[in-house]
Each structure stands twice: as C-alpha cells, then as structure tokens.
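Hi team,

As requested, here is the filled-out complex form for the glutamic acid run. I kept the field names the same as last time so the parser does not choke. Let me know if anything looks off before we queue the next batch.

— J.
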Amino acid sequence: MCGIVGYVGTRDAVPVILEGLGRLEYRGYDSAGLAVISHGALEMRRSVGKLVNLAKAVKADPLSGQVGVGHTRWATHGRPSEENAHPHTDCKGRMVVVHNGIIENYLSLKERLQGEGHTFKSETDTEVLAHLIEEQMRGNLFEAVRLALQQVEGSYAIGVVSVDDPGRVVAARRGSPLVAGLGEGECFVASDIPAILQATRRIMFLEDGELCVLSRKGIEIRDDSGKAI
Ligand code: GLU
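And here is what came back:
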C-alpha cells in the first residue's frame, strides 16, 4: 500500500502531483506514475523504481494539465513493471484510475468483463476498477465510480479522472486512508497529510465508504448511496 495524489485547480497539476508523491515516499514503493487531462485527452507517464525515474520521464517527454492524479505503487498483484504501474485506463483511454489497496474479487470481475469484450493491459487487480467505471459511465463520473464500487470487495483509496467529465477528480475510500484539501480555486486529495500540507491547511479526513468530488469550486463529500454529507 503506497500513495495517491489528485489535483484540480488553475496551476499545472504535474509539479503539484510530483511534489505530493515525493512527500509520500516514506510509505515505500516500487513504481510510480501520473496522468493529466491535457487539451481534452489523457496524457500519462509511468516508470519503475524511484520517483526520480518518473520525474526524468516527465522531463524527457513533458506534459501538463490542470486536472490529474498520481500514484506510488507497492505491487500486490502483478510484478513491478511499467505496464502494471498506475494509473490504469479503460479500453478507450478516456479515463484513468489510481488505487491503493487490494480488490479481493478482481478475478471473477475480470473474467466477466473480459467475457463482455473488455481488453486488459496489466496483471493488476486495480485494472478491473477502470473497466467497471467505464461500464457505468454515462457522462457523470461520480455516479459511474459510485456504481462501480458497489461491485467491489476489498480495500481501496482511489482517484479517478475522465475526459468525459473534465474539471473533476472523483475519489473514494474503504479500508485505505484518504484526505482531501481545500485551497483557493484548487483542491487536493492524497493518502496522507504531508502530500498536501505545503498547499493548504484546510484538510479533512474521509471516512470509510465515503466518496468525494473535487473541482475548482470545492469539495463535495457523499456517502455510498450518493447522498451529500
Ligand atoms: N493492488 C494494487 C496493485 O498491485 C495497488 C497496490 C498499492 O496499493 O500500491 O497494483
């Protein structure tokens, strides 16, 4: 179990996410990655090993965007490799998910999704989340994530972004930690406080089973029935 960071605001998300991941390094990891929405499309960089490798990959092939998520991985399902590093995408590459935790029933979900024509690109348990959300997506990312998570057993802290609902990061937790931070015209989500403390002191802990929607306007927290908290 390692770290996730999500950002939406007016700054470039890439340095914010890299810095946040750096502050979660103490949690240990074997690979790292990030994705941002850039000009209506998703751009992603991933690398095995230390965060400096991801920073090098970003420097060699720069990307930028104002909405994004990042991840440091401690492999539980599938060896440490670039293909298994997060974020993971749906079939069309229109949505990405980062995840800390373990999806216990991933094998049966994966078999069903593959039977329905979904193509998997990694050996991770996490990738089922991307395809489950894809299956539920009708233009409202929050609802798609909420309905997808109802099918999942196990532990998770996730961050999701989609080009079909840009301007938002949807996050949720059950069994893995997650905090949300409110800034001026920007919001953050992360596994732990140090990742966002340099940006804001207005931080809240999400409770088990809660979901949140981050936008430039602020943070909405909802329960798993979709009711606002
Ligand atoms: N179970 C996921 C994987 O192996 C997430 C591991 C983590 O929490 O970093 O990719």
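Two things worth flagging: Helices lie at 13-22, 51-60, 106-115, 127-136, 141-149. The chain has a mean pLDDT of 97.

Thanks,
J.
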